[in-house]
Design a protein that fits this description.
Number of strands: 2
Largest sheet: 2 strands, antiparallel
CATH superfamily: NCX, central ion-binding region
Number of helices: 13
Distance between the termini: 52 Å
Radius of gyration: 20 Å
Shape: globular
CATH class: Mainly Alpha
Helix content: over 70%
Structural class: mainly alpha
CATH topology: A middle domain of Talin 1
Amino acid sequence: MNGFLAKVEHWVGLNALLLVLTLFIPVAIVLEFTHANPIFVLLFSAVAIIPLAAMIGEGTEALAEKVGERTGGLLNATLGNAAELIIAIVALRQGLISLVLASITGSILGNLLLIMGLSLLIGGIRHGLQRFDREHAGLDATLLVLAVFTLAIPSFFNQAIEPDFKRVEFLSIGASVAILVMYGLVILYSFTSKTREGDPQAREAHAPTGWSTKHALIVLVVAVGFIALLSEFLVSAVEPVTESLGLSEFFIGIILIPLVGNAAEHFVAVQVAAKNRMDLALSIAIGSSLQVALFVAPLLVFISLALGHPMPLEFTVYEILAVSAASLIAALVSLDGRSNWLEGSMLLVLYAILAVAYFFF
């Protein structure tokens, strides 16, 4: 009974915060149509997307309750990065390919260093040495290392065969097909493997919504529509903001956009770590990174072709090194099935160093 009340209390508190953040939606719209300072348009649009991303999460959870655990897990995985995907599509339509590539890298780094770091730090401070399922976390971490290397391979070879853009494009398409096949195999494994009691894949990050299917679909459609609108505002403000503040488009893509698209899920990861549920916290952090590497990145390659702005899977050496290091660190953290606050603080320091470095990049 106490556990149920705690879950309800967490759900109510989180939704109260999100309700406050929804006030940024009309403000962002007013700022855009009154041609206000692009800096304010970008900031208010970014914050306004956070509660909408959470609404997509709530709607997805409600639909997942109706279709069963396995299919619900697939639905959660597919729509888990919907907000970030919409922002990326809008940016691709405007030809901001470097912004999209940076957001892919930033999402993986944010999950593995910032969110995992915060989870380990806060959980460690509150509960000391925390334990988690080493087998499950290790499998996720291994898949993540493989996924990162699948993104690195076309990046290195693309740089070798440039400026022959046709060959670069075909290599990116071929690699994307292979990555999506790998993603399909991961989904197949999750459907055919036995779910153990307490498996973090059977996530209970949200209290039951009690929504009907119709209600959930309406929420999803409305949230997606507003995110698409606000994404237009956000992306259109990127260029004038970078010019006025001296920031790079790369920095906004690698730091700001990933935080906006995944803020609600990040908050849940830190919350459950504070409640000594490190299995679930790691599942959220590593699982979201896997989703970006194996599904979002290759999908955006094909979407970019349809929009007439082909995006090669070509990341800079600095991005590849950072993401590779982050994935290996996540694997090392998962090896012994234990975590502490010191590991979390070191992950946060590394993320801060990278953020400063990318600021001057």
